């Protein structure tokens, strides 16, 4: 079999050479050369699509590296142009994001400064009259609760006693045109108001004939202009609080604001 194959090869090769003779032989050589050139061009393809100039790397907002562009500025395919446009848009958005972040940081700093300014003003500015009266009532209730003599009064009565004292404090500083500091206000309430409050508490027990009337009296001291007292209850209350007011005014006549 081996000898037979050699004989066939010896016959076929000459026939092929004869068929390729002349121009056919040269055409074959030319095809081989073109094929080799195509292979070399194919090897270079990976390099020719790389850009001749690239963008530099950038750092994103979260510290991530933004990769440089991978397309050349010239000879871009339609797909590459779309991608290049998207990359450019992304770069622009990153710059706008930085600008907005800077503005937000600036606004946060302004808000913090304004809040600090507001706190300072609230700390040093005088209280409104409503706030001041509320502080007087709060301080007086605390004082009364700690006094053994106040245990005979109910919580509702102490509320009424504190509200009545707040009204007298308001009339006093308004008539004298006083602006008291926190320390001065606390001293005035501590030294002058408990005795008046006890007097009012005793008077409420006399004037009110039921818990309902006690609630009406408390509401009256809170907002006299919205009084729902009956004529008889109003008369009884006026009778019992008059001596309390007189004693308080006599004592306050000697009040001298500390310098």
The radius of gyration is: 51 Å
**Mean of all residue-level pLDDT scores:** 77
Quote the distance from N terminus to C terminus: 136 Å
Helix-strand topology string: HHEEHHHHHH
Q: Give a quick account of the main beta sheet: strands, pairing sense, barrel closure.
A: 2 strands, antiparallel
The best one-word shape is: rod-shaped
Binned strand content: under 5%
**Helix content, binned percent:** over 70%
Number of helices: 8
Secondary structure: number of strands: 2
Count of domains: 2
Low-confidence stretches: 6-10, 15-20, 45-55
Order of adjacent strands in the largest pleated sheet? 1-2
Structural class: mainly alpha
Summarize the structure.
This protein is mainly alpha-helical and 259 residues long.
Structure description:
- This protein is mainly alpha-helical and 259 residues long.
- The protein folds into two domains: 54-125, no CATH class; 129-252, no CATH class.
- It has eight helices and two strands.
- Strands 1-2 form a two-stranded antiparallel sheet.
- The longest helix is centred in the middle third of the chain and has 47 residues, at 78-124.
- The chain is rod-shaped and about 135 Å long.
- The protein starts with a helix and ends in a 7-residue tail after the last helix.
- The model is unreliable at 6-10, 15-20 and 45-55 (pLDDT under 50).
């Amino acid at each position: 079999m081996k000898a037979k194959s050699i004989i066939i090869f010896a016959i076929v090769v000459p026939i092929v050479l004869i068929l390729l003779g002349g121009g056919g032989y040269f055409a074959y050589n030319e095809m081989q050369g073109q094929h080799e050139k195509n292979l070399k061009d194919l090897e270079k393809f990976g390099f020719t699509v790389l850009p001749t100039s690239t963008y530099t790397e950038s750092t994103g907002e979260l510290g991530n590296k933004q990769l440089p562009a991978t397309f050349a500025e010239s000879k871009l395919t339609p797909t590459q142009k779309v991608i290049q446009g998207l990359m450019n848009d992304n770069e622009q958005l990153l710059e706008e994001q930085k600008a907005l972040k800077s503005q937000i940081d600036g606004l946060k700093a302004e808000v913090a400064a304004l809040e600090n300014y507001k706190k300072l003003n609230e700390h040093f500015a005088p209280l409104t009259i409503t706030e001041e009266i509320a502080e007087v009532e709060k301080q007086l209730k605390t004082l009364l609760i700690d006094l053994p003599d106040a245990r005979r009064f109910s919580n509702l009565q102490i509320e009424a006693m504190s509200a009545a004292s707040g009204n007298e404090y308001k009339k006093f500083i308004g008539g004298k045109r006083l602006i008291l500091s926190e320390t001065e206000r606390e001293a005035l309430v501590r030294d002058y108001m408990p005795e008046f409050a006890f007097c009012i508490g005793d008077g409420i027990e006399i004037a009110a004939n039921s818990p309902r009337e006690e609630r009406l009296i408390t509401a009256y001291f809170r907002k006299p202009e919205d009084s729902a007292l009956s004529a008889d209850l109003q008369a009884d209350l006026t009778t019992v609080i008059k001596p309390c007011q007189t004693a308080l005014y006599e004592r306050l006549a000697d009040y001298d604001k500390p310098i």
